User: Fold these one by one.
Assistant:
Number 1:
Amino acid sequence: NAGVTQTPKFQVLKTGQSMTLQCAQDMNHNSMYWYRQDPGMGLRLIYYSASEGTTDKGEVPNGYNVSRLNKREFSLRLESAAPSQTSVYFCASSEGRGRLTEAFFGQGTRLTVV
Amino acid sequence: DQQVKQNSPSLSVQEGRISILNCDYTNSMFDYFLWYKKYPAEGPTFLISISSIKDKNEDGRFTVFLNKSAKHLSLHIVPSQPGDSAVYFCAASAGYQLIWGAGTKLIIKP
């Protein structure tokens, strides 16, 4: 079982470049999430999609956009990368439409902006 | 303002003994709490959860305790095994969002 698949695993960008992080889940989950994790901190929610066709801002949405392409796929776009966006990015999915309980995570994308 | 705090960045425990990981929260609106385990270069994996209507939940070697009056929860691992060496995150659910602690690195010594 693939679960949640993120691509790429590693990326180095120059300041001002753009890129899209891809995420797909094969568990037929309704909700999907993008998090970032920085050293010494917990995961912080960037955006989430409670169901296909909807997206909402999380705790740290500035500098990012998302697209819920279909039920399986949820992408995260950096339009103009900045060094402050150097982080490890995790995509996650969960079954529920209401409460967030157990979420399944991808392996992460380690992004460095120079 | 950290709403979920794990005050111990790391913890070292002898194999076979009990590991106790602690977590404090400030928001009384949180009503569901989760523990995740994370190995290097992998995403977090769900371990165990507890609803605020309970004060204890067990799953094999893992038990989570919730003290609502103290806004404190703890994860007990008994007995600790080498494969338990990982970073443990506690998280509190607020609707669609999970608010995460910074994690505790657990090291199980042989």
Number 2:
Amino acid sequence: EPEVTQTPSHQVTQMGQEVILRCVPISNHLYFYWYRQILGQKVEFLVSFYNNEISEKSEIFDDQFSVERPDGSNFTLKIRSTKLEDSAMYFCASSLRDGENSPLHFGNGTRLTVT
Amino acid sequence: RKEVEQDPGPFNVPEGATVAFNCTYSNSASQSFFWYRQDCRKEPKLLMSVYSSGNEDGRFTAQLNRASQYISLLIRDSKLSDSATYLCVVRDSNYQLIWGAGTKLIIKP
């Protein structure tokens, strides 16, 4: 069964450094998402991406964050200057459609630790 | 009022028992509904979509009550491997996914 893959599985970085989290969505999917989950808390929406542009973003997704689909397969999340509170699991997801009854398929996540 | 609300649990249930969770949602225009399962420090995995007429997948049954704005998940003959957090997810009228905080289930031998 096709799956969403994310790398790295764990990233440790110092406060103020830039990080890039990478995702390869399922190949025929058209909609891509980033979510985060702070340890012990609920899953939070960051951004959705379709047709090479951001379609929705949350309040969390401020100017420190950006997304790219540089080559038609990878989908990246960049955090420009990490803060301690950015420490979380970051999940990439993709879906075939964005309509009713179109479930998301999640990657295994990248655990980001900011020290 | 939270948009999607779940009892956080934990529900401690003996193996073989039947357990049910509810999830309430606040937006009556919500479009579609899902149950996801999340193991500790792992990604959420789709368990089942919830259809208006209710649906069953093996030991799992999902129901939707639009009038009262809740969905339910019933697990029959629970297994140790069912221990996880069950996340209720609602897609609103803007196609945004709204996540509940999850209900923790612990199945005991």
